[in-house]
Amino acid sequence: MGWKGTVRSVSAAMRAAEREAERRRKAEFKAQQIEEAGQAVDDWKQYLDDIISVHTDKADDINWQSIANAPPLVEPKPEKRHQAEALANIENFQPRIFDFVFGGTSRRRERLDAALADAIAADSDEFARKRSEYLIAEQEREEDAHLATRVLDGEKSAYSEVISVLYDGEELYLGQSIQFKIDDNSVHAMPLVSEADDIVPTFRLKQLQSGKLSKTKMPKGEFNELYQDYVCSVALRLAGDIFGNLPLDECHVTCSATMLNTKTGHLEDAPILSVLFVRDTFERLNLSGLDPSDSLANFNHEMNFRKTKGFERIEPLKPTD
């Protein structure tokens, strides 16, 4: 083969290699797009599930009776564990033959005596640490027991303390703010829920057979129903928190949202859902399997909702002022 033929052969091989590399790049890019599209759809579905299942993530229940009856902690006593080990080493000390030759007996004994002093100090430090931890823990137990007694007695101030700890920071999905009206043996939770456009996506995601991502506008009815489930889920979550942390047989939850007042043309916070939750009924619910909106049929509630228009203002079961 002449040099021209060699060049043509090498060039053809290079072009074939470039075409193969380009084919692989396209295949990898398409596979990545398909994977990313699938992940986007999964994330979208997970988000929708999150906003309508707020009620399944309620706070852990508190047994106030158990806290009130908790016995005092056992006060630690001084121990001489390190000292005993050091004394045993001294008692078992035996001079060695070379100690007599080189005069090492006294030095070894001095080290053992110094180790005894360190051991006594270590025992003292350990007891001081344990006693400090005990005093802190016992004080916390006494404070908790006192709070538990007040909670069980239905004191308004005790309920306020519990709720302030329960909601001491941002609560994901629970809304813009939460207010509580607390009386003796009575709690009324009043969340200002997030606006529909801020919490519910206005689009739908779907992965086509080709693997590409399809994004379409969410139908108004589906959008409104998702928002309804979100609002009802928030109400269920608050009821679960209250029943789990306070010894109440009933509680009220009134959800408000920022809405346009067509009479004034101004935005204002208006009640859109009011529920009287009863503990016995609530505790029989399967929170992980229910539909938030449908579940309110188990309780006395006020809600004016239409799939085509969404929520409208209602008169709460219990005054919010």
TrEMBL record:
* Superkingdom of origin: Bacteria
Q: Region Disordered: what ranges?
A: 1-23
The protein's name is Uncharacterized protein
